[in-house]
């Protein structure tokens, strides 16, 4: 507990460095300063933020603060929250920065599926944030022509390029790679899809580094975001070329695809390729968001969509055995979320049993294997063995670890102490009797995996910033 409290400021400091460095790299020092102020002070109203930024050392004018906020709202980095009878507040969304780091992976995935047209569309949205269909297609058409000239290809008819891009855009919307941006309004009681002025009617460029001259008119406050009502969610992926509708990348869709791909690779490593196909098809049937319940599938349902796969031939009995094996390995769970369901229960009620992918359990195991590989790099095979042993057994004394790991006690003591210094293990002192004599204490070694993950994330932030500075 004491160690977790001591490390808490370091987590915040390195994450702030990571976010500020990302903002500076893409949008300049002024946006970095405004974003850093929101990170340091928390949600702020516009007036409060302008007052704080006008003071040394930043000395940023109120107009420039508004422009910086517009840039970050345009790219989804700042969330705007408003309550009745209160002024809107602005706060930085750290997840938006994490998504921006993944943009190169987005582009690579889209190029594999939609070729050059999809790549150009996604690059335009990564660069400009929210765009209307018309503006997005105009930017993409110019980029496509420029790319063909660069690679010395004979440019085709512009109308053909535009049609190809528009067709690609419609397919991406249909497959939910893109979605309508949240509505930006200027009044609290506007309708769900208003026709009033919105941020993003034009591509907002980052503010210049030099201080601009004073402008006579009073700048308007950036509008707040009004999330669509539940009855209007069906319009989120409805195609529209209306000038009032803006489109942005649907980050949960990309995370959904990358997660399913990694889970499929893990299942293939644990079982075989057929199990990978089964899990992949089940995951593809799940909703993208986490709000809707995940459907469960009976054996016959799973067999139906396995039949549609090319190169996969498996009988019903073979499929039942495969599902039983995957359930025993905790890759699947029976309906109701009971991970401890015995294999005998599944065999006796095979017709009634429905299966779900144990997403949380698989991800936890993947994270554990990743942490164990890092421990192996730092402390060798013995250290990785001790780490996994203590994690599985929850609490162990030093002599118990030595016996179970078949290692000498002095080696175990040194490895546990080094892992404690690096944040991969903890030690708890427990009194042996009710007298609580400090000379009669029992020391139990544990692995707080939540703190281990925080430590690894903190080191990732630290390494990313240092590498970016060196480059």
Automatic annotation (TrEMBL):
Instruction: Assign the protein's first listed, main location to one coarse class.
Output: nucleus
What InterPro entries does the entry give?
Answer: POLR3C_WHD, RNA_pol_III_RPC82-rel_HTH, RNA_pol_III_Rpc82_C, RPC3, WH-like_DNA-bd_sf
Query: A GO CC term?
Result: RNA polymerase III complex
State the compartments where it is located: Nucleus
GO function terms (MF aspect): single-stranded DNA binding
Origin: domain of life: Eukaryota
Domain (RNA polymerase III Rpc82 C -terminal) spans 227-339
Q: Which UniProt keywords apply?
A: DNA-directed RNA polymerase, Nucleus, Transcription
Specify the DNA-directed RNA polymerase III subunit RPC3 winged-helix domain's residue ranges: 372-447
What does the entry give for GO biological process? DNA-templated transcription
Q: Which residues form the RNA polymerase III subunit RPC82-related helix-turn-helix domain?
A: 26-78
Q: Which family does it belong to?
A: Belongs to the eukaryotic RPC3/POLR3C RNA polymerase subunit family.
Q: How does it assemble?
A: Component of the RNA polymerase III (Pol III) complex consisting of 17 subunits.
Report the function annotation for this chain: DNA-dependent RNA polymerase catalyzes the transcription of DNA into RNA using the four ribonucleoside triphosphates as substrates. Specific core component of RNA polymerase III which synthesizes small RNAs, such as 5S rRNA and tRNAs.
Name assigned to this protein: DNA-directed RNA polymerase III subunit RPC3
